[in-house]
Amino acid sequence: MSEESLPYDARPAYENAHEEQPDALPAYAERVLEVADLIPPGRVMTYGDVAEWLEEGGPRQVGRAMALYGGAVPWWRVVRADGVLLPGHELRALEHYRAEGTPLKEASRAAEGHLPRLDMKRARWDGGERAQGHT
């Protein structure tokens, strides 16, 4: 994915440095992080769900914003639609999922790494009551 495909305000800060303060959080990324903060413990939203909520961008743009700026929010609650744990962060995410009681599907012995997946049918959050107040 090229940075040109990101909404203008989701591009890395260094690209827009001449127009805004270098430490400023891009507006799109800020909105993505706000949605991530709304997701209750034990529940998840996909990258695409977050983009739909915002009515802007798509899964890749949300993923990029989370990769660059998501460390300060519950990043493990914004996930791939197939329920596969975030590559490179599987064990940390799994600790969070188990602590929060997030529904998981245990891996079969044939599964690579024997890591569970998220049970998306049970874990996925659509915004519930909080979504009604969202504008």
Write a structural description.
This protein is mainly alpha-helical and 135 residues long. The protein is 38% helix and 6% strand. The chain contains 6 helices and 4 strands, in the order H-E-H-H-E-H-E-E-H-H. A two-stranded parallel ribbon has the order 1-2. The chain has a two-stranded antiparallel sheet with strand order 3-4. Helix 1 crosses helix 2 (47-54) and helix 1 (27-38) packs across helix 3 (59-69). The radius of gyration is 16 Å and the shape is globular. The two termini are 29 Å apart.
Topology:
Blueprint: H1 27-38, E1 45-46, H2 47-54, H3 59-69, E2 78-79, H4 90-100, E3 104-105, E4 117-118, H5 120-123, H6 128-132
Parallel strand pairs: 1-2
Antiparallel strand pairs: 3-4
Helix pairs in contact: 1-2, 1-3, 2-3
Could you describe the largest sheet, including whether it forms a barrel?
2 strands, parallel
Q: What's the number of extended β-strand segments?
A: 4
Tell me the β content: 5-15%
Order of helices and strands: HEHHEHEEHH
Q: Could you estimate the helical fraction of the residues in percent?
A: 25-40%
Structural class: mainly alpha
Radius of gyration: 16 Å
Q: State mean pLDDT (0 to 100 scale).
A: 83
Gross geometry: globular
Biggest sheet: strand arrangement: 1-2
Terminal CA distance reads: 29 Å
Give the uncertain stretches in residue-range form: 11-20
Number of helices: 6
